[in-house]
Amino acid sequence: MNEFEAKRLLQEHGIEVPNGRLIRNRDEARGLGYPAVLKVCSEKILHKSDVGGVHFVRNEGELTKALDDLLSRFPNEQFLLEEMIEEKGIETIVGVGWDRDFGRFIMAGIGGVMAELYGDVAFRLLPIDRTNAIALVDSLRGKRLFHGFRGMRVDSEAFYDLLLKVAQIAEENDIRDMDLNPVLLTEKRAIVLDAKIVEGRK
User: Which of 5, 71, 109, 196 sits at a 20 to 30 Å CA gap from 180?
Assistant: First the structure.
């Protein structure tokens, strides 16, 4: 499924995502407001940034230029226009995968651009309960980030809730892989900024 469909599935289970819509022209963008993020939206393109498929726009002129660029390079695709989330917080990652021997598992850790650099993630087999979710976070090297570090306060309870909701989605749907990165964890909420979901087991 594409990112728009993935986020609608998350939203149906009470997970917060940015306000957004699929567009093909500037007229369809009216009413969302700025700043915003414009992305190519295709299940065939999983790593949008790697192909120049993401633009940050702060006014109608920038949106027009960004949309013209994406239309020229991805003429047969749709585009996702979303509000830009500018709250302060930490970037985390949450994922789901399938292992032939052990079955479905959930993963969580430090996300964003630091995900590949630090590789600070931990795994648990599904299903999980709240105790498992807390233990998963506490097994991370960067666990202090989830409990207030140098004055940075975040809602760790919202992150535990997110893990349980993701686990529920994975258990109720035929999902092979899920990659939510980044998930912005702020003082008041956890919000999924980017989502990839691949259906079907390996």
Answer: 71
pTM of the model: 0.93
Q: Give dist(CA 158, CA 178) in Å, integer.
A: 19
95, 105, 99: which is closest to 201 by C-alpha?
Answer: 99
Reported as a single tens digit per residue, the pLDDT across 15-24 is 999 999 999 8
Q: What is the pLDDT of residues 148-167, one digit of tens each?
A: 777 788 999 999 999 999 99
Nearest to 29 by CA among 5, 64, 69: 64
| Rounded CA separation 108/118 (Å) | 13
Distance CA 32, CA 13 (A): 23
> 8 in helix, strand or coil?
helix
Q: Which long-range contacts (CB under 8 A, 24 or more apart) does 100-109 make?
A: 100/202, 104/170, 104/171, 106/136, 106/163, 106/166, 106/167, 106/170, 108/136, 108/137, 108/140, 108/159, 108/163, 109/140, 109/142
Tell me yes or no: is domain 19-83 CATH 3.30.1490.20: yes
Class of domain 90-199: alpha beta
**What residue spans define the domains of the chain?**
19-83, 90-199
